[in-house]
């Protein structure tokens, strides 16, 4: 199957999910009101709460939603083939990442930009919050362990993959410098990367 066709189908799935499923989640499930001010505008402290361009916000949220996909996806492809990896990335981002991250974003936004653990203090009892935070900590440890396992397997099977992974960190630092210190355009440097 052609890579271009696969990319078109994947982007089509994302576009349809955004239009219909995202609209359902935002409108019916979470009751998002576009006229409601966000903590970035209400607080605007220049550090943690800063109004930003849509392209930057999209990048942050797309990366958050993709989450495990970009890390585990290539390893899944190497181990089990491209079809499971494609399904993992596309369907996982739509049906798992999208719901989770939009829900967390809405909850945080409606509680002054506070973290999920902090919001839990207002919503559930202290004992339930402690259990909730323990479960979250355990889940983060499990996800990190799986990341480590998958990357370890990938590096063992394909040692040549180590260098491209290590080059991502200095590339990200360099892009941040070029965009924030030298006044470069995010879109241009994203295309170059």
Describe the structure.
This protein has 193 residues and is mainly α. It has two domains: 3-157, no CATH class; 159-193. 79% of the residues lie in helices and 0% in strands. α3 (54-66) crosses α5 (82-110) and α4 (68-80) packs antiparallel against α5 (82-110).
Average pLDDT for all residues = 85
- The strand count comes to 0
DSSP helical segment count: 9
Give the topology string: H per helix, E per strand.
HHHHHHHHH
Low-confidence stretches: none
Instruction: Decide which structural class fits the backbone.
Output: mainly alpha
What is the terminal separation in angstroms?
26 Å
The general outline is globular
DSSP helix fraction: over 70%
Oligomer: single chain
Counting structural domains, the number is 2
How is the biggest beta sheet arranged?
none
Radius of gyration: 19 Å
Q: Which percent range describes the beta-strand content?
A: under 5%
Give the topology, please:
Layout: H1 3-29, H2 39-42, H3 54-66, H4 68-80, H5 82-110, H6 116-123, H7 126-157, H8 162-180, H9 186-192
Helix pairs in contact: 1-5, 3-5, 4-5, 4-7
Summary of the model, kept short:
This protein is an all-alpha fold and 193 residues long. The protein has helices spanning 3-29, 39-42, 54-66, 68-80, 82-110, 116-123, 126-157, 162-180, 186-192. It has 2 domains: 3-157, no CATH class; 159-193.
